């Protein structure tokens, strides 16, 4: 499999009054045309990893790495201007809650058209046509009406599909999905995921799927990185997740309720301070 | 000595308070540490402390009697022997008048602060807690007062009541309470619907107890921030009324009135109006700086800097 | 509206459309506020220690004259009736006669108001043009030197007595440097050289193409207007900054960046678009504040506007003039508030 993205020794640091806080501590991994899951609890650094790839860590946060290579091209060496050509066009991101990630005072259509026209030289009419097509591709019926609507008039599932349409319209090679279904009703989660899955497969994209939901990731992804305290503690094939060896992964699996093995009491995760200090596992193909 | 302070500090910074008073003191101390790290706020606090000291020790600090006229020594410039800041049109020492003027400023601020926030707190919490018609009527009244331009309403009140410090205080207080009422109502509404208030109500606490013991204490911190930031506005309003001749009456050394006196000579004897103006500016600046700092400590969600 | 002719039988109980209901509720709340406003001024007028009868007929009137005037003013009626009459008169634009000018107060206000409006309008333009960009840049470059400057500008604005700053400005730019005109609206040689159409001298001079007079009027207005402008600048820039900070931390801003937009476009096309409505409210409030702030400014610069009118009336116990002026300014306040609410409803898609 061709490597799209290669990350070597990535650190995300936040200097504070009491010292420097390292949120991501030297992780390395790569991504091909596959669905890569990153799993961890809140504060494990998984979301920051996603944003660091796009170089969207807010000041005073600092991103450091030996390299973040897209097709062998180091993103860290790029100027902010060059980086803008990467964002959206090469790498895109879907965030957690469409209620917040869509601009509340702009029509849905204008937001999608804007995303398209930033990277493609297209007339307004053509961009409009393209946007309607894209909305239809994410199974939105009545796309013309949705184009004229404002985000608050949309349901959560609709909003997230709009968000996916908007992020895929410039035809990027990599999509980072940061907890894309956590804010949605359980009933529409599956639908949104299958739409995303279909589009990613059709276009031969690479997907980084960030989630805290181990079950979801094991069903949906090809490969899983398990992060703990800013490091990767284990890498495994999603299908073989139940064979995971690291005590943290085992603990996470053990704390999930299961229909086939009912238990009176679920296991409580006990954390070993040694996990924090153990070196990061390499998450390469 | 050092070990003792060390332990006191440790006791205050303890993560596991042993009593309610301990927790309260610890919270207070931590707030103080944050405030102390804010240099601007500390400068403000220092200026206010200086103002308090000046007002308290005015008779010992002032080189001259602020009311004694000396027509032979009128309109003396800055740096005149015995009159560092010069003299005014009646030969009174400007420095001494400014020192005594600090008492009037503090007096006005203290009186307004004792009336307006408390009135606003009462109206706001009652409206928010009672709801229904009480809420509608009280908030309508609040809106009516908010609809008036503050200074003009104060002017009209002073016109009706007669000029003088007490009436100026009353007029300022009458225009200052509505924002407090709005704020207290908003806080009450959020607190009222919280689970722990339901829990207390289930235990049989009456409205009086809930308002005084559970709602008021939670309104206090935002109230303190608002009051501190309002102080500057109060000082400016009082000075404005004094300047218009509707506040403190001559020969009172109120700062605004002093500027008004100096205005007639502004082009030739500029220092007469300049010095009291600097005093007003410094003091309101100090309150604004302290208010900003306090907001960061007490009300971080509103902090914008 | 053509709907006035429909036959009520066909639509027996027409439910009110929601926009009409909303409008009615708004109108009701406005009228309550305005009535309350009038009640407060009426009340102030009644607690006045000045005898309204003596104020009209003078000290040397006979007992009969006094009684006649007493009846004429309606003082024998109950307070409620008197209030009703007062509201009636105000609704007809009748604020009584001014003792000082011996003219109807409404005429006086119509004469002085354009001067205040001219001053406040130039002030607010100054405040918007400088304050909004300053606030936006301060938020975007948070903690930078420009943010520090914006902070100091605002702090000084919040802490400086306006009348004192005006005096100092007059001393420096007029007294020492001689760059601007002194107190008043015009130099003595330019008075009555062109017809007064709008009452705003700059506009009138421009209409008459009297450019020397325009220049003279400008040199008089520039100092008081920039003084008022400074205060609105302080307020507007501070509010703009805090609105922008809130928006810049919102997730849709990240979305815009993910799309690959330039920072400039992210700030102005996305974040700024979200604060426009709030900003309109702030500007309306600030404009209302300038009309009020003009009281002290007008005194310092001998500007013949409404603030000066009210204060002069106050010092000579001309109560009709004081209350009339207060009511007018209060009504303008209320109208500006309604106006900004209305814009809110029009421009914010979420409010529909």
Structural overview:
The complex is a heterotrimer of chains A (285), B (305) and C (352). By secondary structure, chain A is an alpha/beta fold. Chain A is 35% helix and 25% strand. Chain A has helices at residues 46-53, 80-86, 98-101, 108-117, 124-137, 143-148, 156-168, 186-202, 214-220, 247-254, 273-277, and strands at residues 3-16, 19-32, 35-39, 62-64, 67-70, 73-74, 91-94, 174-178, 206-211, 223-228, 231-237. Chain B has a single domain, classed as MetI-like fold, CATH 1.10.3720. Chain B has helices at residues 2-12, 20-37, 39-56, 58-61, 94-130, 132-147, 150-161, 165-192, 195-202, 207-243, 255-263, 271-298. Chain C has 352 residues and is mostly helical. Helix content of chain C is 72%, strand content 0%. Chain C has helices spanning 18-47, 52-57, 63-72, 79-91, 105-140, 145-159, 162-176, 201-207, 211-248, 251-258, 263-300, 306-315, 319-347. Chain C starts with 17 loop residues before the first helix and ends in a 5-residue tail after the last helix. Chains B and C meet through α6, α7, α10, α11 and α12 of B and α1, α6, α7, α9 and α11 of C.
Order of helix and strand elements from N to C terminus of chain A: EEEHEEEHEHHHHHEHEHEEHH
CATH topology of chain B: MetI-like fold
- The SSE string of chain B, one letter per element, is HHHHHHHHHHHH
Distance between the termini of chain B: 38 Å
Helix content of chain A: 25-40%
Quote the average pLDDT of chain B: 85
Radius of gyration of chain A: 19 Å
Number of helices of chain B: 12
Quaternary form = heterotrimer
The total number of structural domains of chain A is 1
Question: At CATH's second level, what is the architecture of chain B?
Answer: Orthogonal Bundle
What's the β-strand tally of chain A?
11
CATH architecture identity of chain A: 3-Layer(aba) Sandwich
Distance between the termini of chain A: 8 Å
Would you identify the CATH H-level superfamily of chain B? MetI-like
């Amino acid at each position: 499999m061709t490597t799209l993205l290669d990350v070597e020794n990535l650190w995300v640091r936040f200097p504070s009054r009491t010292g420097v806080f390292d949120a991501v501590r030297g992780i390395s991994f790569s991504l091909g045309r596959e669905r890569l899951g990153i799993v961890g609890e809140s504060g494990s650094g998984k979301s920051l990893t996603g944003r660091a790839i796009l170089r969207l860590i807010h000041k005073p946060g600092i991103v450091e790495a030996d390299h973040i290579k897209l097709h062998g091209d180091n993103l860290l060496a790029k100027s902010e201007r060059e980086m803008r050509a990467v964002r959206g066009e090469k790498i895109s991101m879907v965030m957690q809650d469409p209620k917040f990630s869509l601009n509340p005072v702009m029509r849905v259509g204008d937001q999608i058209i804007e995303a398209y026209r930033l990277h493609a030289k297209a007339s307004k009419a053509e961009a409009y046509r393209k946007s309607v097509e894209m909305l239809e591709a994410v199974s939105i019926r009545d796309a013309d009406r949705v184009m004229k609507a404002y985000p608050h008039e949309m349901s959560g599932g609709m909003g997230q599909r709009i968000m996916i349409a908007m992020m895929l319209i410039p035809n990027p090679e990599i999509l980072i999905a940061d907890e894309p279904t956590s804010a949605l009703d359980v009933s529409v989660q599956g639908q949104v995921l299958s739409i995303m899955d279909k589009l990613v497969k059709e276009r031969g994209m690479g997907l980084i799927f960030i989630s805290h939901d181990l079950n979801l990731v094991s069903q949906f992804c090809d490969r899983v990185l398990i992060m703990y305290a800013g490091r990767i503690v284990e890498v495994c094939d999603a299908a073989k997740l139940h064979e995971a060896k690291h005590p943290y992964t085992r603990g996470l699996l053990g704390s999930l309720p299961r229909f086939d093995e009912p238990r009176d009491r679920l296991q409580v995760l006990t954390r070993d301070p040694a996990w924090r200090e153990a070196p990061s596992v390499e998450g390469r193909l | 000595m050092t070990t003792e302070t060390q332990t006191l500090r440790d006791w205050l910074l303890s993560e596991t308070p042993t009593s309610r008073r301990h927790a309260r003191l610890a919270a207070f101390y931590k707030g103080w540490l944050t405030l102390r790290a804010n240099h601007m706020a500390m400068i403000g606090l220092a200026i206010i402390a200086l103002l308090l000291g000046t007002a308290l020790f005015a008779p010992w600090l002032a080189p001259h009697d602020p009311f004694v006229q000396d027509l032979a020594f009128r309109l003396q410039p800055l740096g005149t022997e015995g009159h560092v800041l010069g003299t005014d049109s009646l030969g009174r020492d400007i420095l001494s008048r400014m020192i005594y003027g600090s008492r009037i400023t503090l007096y006005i601020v203290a009186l307004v602060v004792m009336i307006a926030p408390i009135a606003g707190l009462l109206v706001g919490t009652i409206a928010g807690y009672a709801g229904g018609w009480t809420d509608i009527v009280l908030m309508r009244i609040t809106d009516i007062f908010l609809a008036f331009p503050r200074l003009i309403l104060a002017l009209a009140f002073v016109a009706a009541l007669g000029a003088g410090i007490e009436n100026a205080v009353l007029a300022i207080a009458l225009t200052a309470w509505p924002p407090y009422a709005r704020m207290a109502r908003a806080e009450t509404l959020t607190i009222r619907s919280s689970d722990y208030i339901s829990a207390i109500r289930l235990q049989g606490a009456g409205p009086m107890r809930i308002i005084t013991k559970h709602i008021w204490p939670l309104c206090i911190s935002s109230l303190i921030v608002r009051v501190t930031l309002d102080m500057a506005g109060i000082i400016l309003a009082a000075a404005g009324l004094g300047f218009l001749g509707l506040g403190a009456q001559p020969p009172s050394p109120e700062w605004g009135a002093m500027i008004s006196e100096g205005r007639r000579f502004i082009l030739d004897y500029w220092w007469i109006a300049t010095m009291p103006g600097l005093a007003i500016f410094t003091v309101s600046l100090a309150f604004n700086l302290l208010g900003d700092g306090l907001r960061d400590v007490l009300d971080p969600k509103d902090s914008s800097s | 509206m053509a709907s006035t002719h429909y036959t009520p039988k066909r639509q027996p109980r027409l439910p009110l459309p929601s926009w009409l209901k909303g409008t009615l509720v708004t109108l009701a709340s406005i009228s309550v506020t305005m009535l309350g406003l009038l009640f407060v001024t009426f009340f102030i007028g009644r607690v006045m220690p000045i005898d309204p009868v003596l104020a009209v007929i003078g000290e040397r009137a006979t007992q009969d004259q006094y009684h006649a005037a007493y009846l004429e003013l309606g003082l024998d009626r109950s307070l409620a009736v008197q209030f009703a009459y007062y509201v009636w008169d105000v609704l007809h634009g009748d604020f009584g006669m001014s003792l000082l000018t011996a003219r109807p107060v409404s005429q006086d206000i119509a004469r002085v108001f354009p001067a205040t409006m001219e001053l406040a309008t130039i002030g607010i333009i100054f405040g918007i043009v400088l304050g909004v960009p300053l606030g936006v840049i301060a938020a975007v470059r948070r903690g930078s030197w420009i943010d520090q400057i914006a902070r100091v500008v605002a702090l000084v604005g919040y802490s400086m007595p306006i009348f004192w700053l005006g005096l100092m400005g007059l001393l420096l730019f007029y007294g020492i440097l001689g760059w601007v005109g002194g107190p008043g609206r015009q130099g003595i040689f330019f008075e009555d050289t062109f017809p007064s159409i709008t009452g705003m001298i700059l506009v009138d001079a421009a209409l008459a193409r009297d450019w020397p007079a325009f220049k003279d009027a400008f040199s008089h207005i520039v100092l008081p207007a920039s003084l008022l402008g400074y205060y609105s600048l302080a307020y507007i820039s501070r509010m703009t900054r805090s609105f922008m900070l809130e928006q810049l931390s919102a997730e849709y801003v990240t979305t815009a960046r993910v799309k690959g937009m330039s920072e400039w476009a992210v700030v102005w096309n996305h974040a700024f678009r979200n604060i426009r409505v709030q900003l309109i409210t702030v500007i309306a409030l600030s404009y209302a504040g300038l009309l009020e702030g003009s009281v002290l400014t007008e005194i310092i610069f001998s500007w013949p506007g409404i603030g000066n009118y009210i204060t002069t009336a106050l010092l000579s116990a001309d109560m009709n003039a004081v209350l009339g002026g207060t009511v007018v300014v209060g009504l303008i306040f209320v109208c500006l508030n309604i106006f900004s609410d209305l814009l809110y409803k029009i421009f914010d898609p979420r409010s529909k």
